[in-house]
Amino acid sequence: MVSEERAAGEEDERYCPSCDRSFDAEEHRCPHDGTELVRFSASRDPMVGRELNGRYTLHERLGAGGMGAIYRALQHSVGRDVAVKIISPQLSSDRTMAKRFLREAKLASRLAQPNTVSILDFGQAPDGLLYLAMELLKGRTLATLVRKEGRFSSERMVRVAVQLCDALEAAHELSIIHRDLKPGNVMVLDEPKGRDLVKVLDFGLAKSLASTSGSTTRSGVVVGTPGYMAPEALLDAPVDARSDLYSLGVILYELVSGRVPFPEGSGHWAERHAFEAPPPLGDHVPAVIQSVLLRLLRKSPNERFATAALTREALLAAREHLGGSLREAGAVAGTPPSSGESPTVSLHPPAAQPAAVPPAARPRVDATVEAPIQGIRAAREDAEPRDLRRWKSAVAAGALVLLCALVLVLALSREAALPLAPVRPAPAAAAAPLPIAPVAAAPPVRDVVLRVRSSPPAQVLIDRVPVGKTPVSRRFSPGASPVLVELRRAGYKTVVRRVVPDRDQDLDLSLTKQPRRPEEGFITPD
C-alpha cells in the first residue's frame, strides 16, 4: 500500500485458480488454500511492464494522485520490490517543474529519519518522464484508518503526533517544508503488530525554503491539499515550517474528532478556513490536548509553536498531565505505565474563541494578507516542582509561628509592667517606653543563575527568545516558572531542555551532527 488511494473507476479482480473464487483486489493469496491469486485488471495500464533506465521494471499500479501514479516495481540490482512514482507527463514536460522536482528529490534523499520514507533513487527516463524510487511500505494511510476505525483516543493521537513531529523536525533542519502534509501522506505500518509506526511520504515533492515563496509554482500548479493548507498558503503568502505545523494541527484535530475543522465544499469554505477559528472539539478531548491543537491552528504563524520540537514537548507535557507515562513514541498500545512518579504539570485550558471576522471586513482569499487572530493561551508547563512547593509551605508556616510568638511576648511584657494596685499615674515626663526587642530584617532575596554551555558552541533560545551564543548566563527570580532552553547550530540536531530555575544551575550539553547523505549524482543503492 502507498499514500495515494486507488484510482477512481478501477475494478481489479483477484482470482484463485484452485478454488475458483474471486476476491478483493487487496488480496494477494487465497485466504482458503494459500494459492497465489491471478489479477485481472479492468483497464490495461501502458506503464505496467515498462523498464526504467535498466534499473526497474514496473509490475503493478498501486494508486494515483495529483502529481502522478505510483507502481510496485522490481529493482534489478538487489532483486527487491520498491515503490516508483511516475510524475505525470504534463508536469514532466514543464521545464520549471522538472528542475524543481530534481532539485527537491535530491534534497529529500538526504533525509535519514525513521519516520520518513527512504528515497532510493530519482531521475528521468529516456522519453522525459520523471520518476522517484522509494521503499515499498506495507500498511494503511491515516486517512484509511480514520475512515474505517473512527476517531483516535488522545493517547493514540499523541503517539502518532510525536512521530510526525520527529519527521518534521528532521526535514525543517534541512530547510525542507512538506507543504502537502495530510492523512493520505502518512502511512501507519502493519509491522510490528499493535504499534502505530508512522512514515511520512512525499517529502520528495516538498518545497525548499530556498525556493520562491508562496503556495503555487511559477507554472501555476497549486502545491498542497486545500483542506489541510495553512491560511497563509491559501492566501498565496510566504510559507515556512510553521505552515507544516498548521497542517499537523488539522491532522490531529481530525484524528480526535473524526472530521476536519472546515470541510471542503461547505459554504464560503475558503474564507472560513482563512479567517474563522475552528469549531470547538467535544468534551471527549481533554482541555490540555485542546490547548495544544488549537494553538497549532491559529491563523497567524507567529502565534503557533515556533518549531516541531516545541510542539512535541507540549504534546508530551499534555499527556503527562493526564497521567500517561512518558512511553517512547510507537510503544505497544495498552502497556501499563511505569511505576515512577510523574512530575506535576499544569496547562492552561483553552480560552474562549474570538468572534468571527464579519464577511464585509474580510479581504479576498486570493489577496496576500496577514490574518492574525486572538486565540487560546500558549500551552506550556508552569507548575513548580513538588520539593519547591513543600519548601515554600514550610517557610510560610514557620513565619506564622514566629509572628504569633512575637505577639505573645509583647503582650506578656506589657502585662508584667503594669502594677497590681491602683496608684497615681506618674507624670508624663517620667513615663518610659516599653522595651521592644528589634526584629531582624529579612535577608534580601538572591536571584538564581542559569549557566548554559555546549560543545560545540550554539545559539541559545530561552522560551523561543534568542539570548546569545554559548556560554551564556541568565538570572531568574526564585520561584520563576519553568523555561524551555533550546540550542541550535547549523548541521547539528536541535536540543531542547525544560529547566526549573529554583537554584543555581550549570547546563552542559553536547550537540550531535545531523547525518547527511552525499549530494552528488543520483542516489541509488546500486
Brief write-up:
The protein has 10 helices and 21 strands. It has helices at residues 89-92, 95-108, 142-149, 154-173, 231-234, 241-257, 269-275, 287-296, 308-321, 386-417; strands at residues 13-16, 21-23, 38-40, 51-52, 56-65, 68-75, 80-87, 119-124, 130-135, 139-141, 176-177, 186-189, 198-200, 207-208, 448-455, 459-462, 465-469, 472-476, 483-488, 495-499, 505-510. The model is unreliable at 1-10, 209-222, 325-384 and 518-526 (pLDDT under 50).
Describe this structure in words.
With 526 residues, this protein is of the alpha+beta class. Among the domains are: 45-135, Phosphorylase Kinase, domain 1 (2-Layer Sandwich), CATH 3.30.200; 139-333 and 344-361, Transferase(Phosphotransferase) domain 1 (Transferase(Phosphotransferase), domain 1, Orthogonal Bundle); 448-510, no CATH class. Helix content is 25%, strand content 20%. It contains ten helices and 21 strands. The strands form six sheets. It has a six-stranded antiparallel β-sheet. A hairpin with a 2-residue loop joins strand 16 and strand 17 (465-469). Helix 4 (154-173) packs antiparallel against helix 6 (241-257), helix 4 packs antiparallel against helix 9 and helix 8 (287-296) packs antiparallel against helix 9. The chain is elongated and about 110 Å long. The two termini are 24 Å apart.
CATH superfamily of the domain at 139-333 and 344-361: Transferase(Phosphotransferase) domain 1
Mean pLDDT, as a whole number?
A: 75
**Radius of gyration over alpha carbons?**
31 Å
Number of DSSP-assigned strands:
21
What summary fits the major beta sheet? Answer: 6 strands, antiparallel
Q: What helical percentage do the residues reach? A: 10-25%
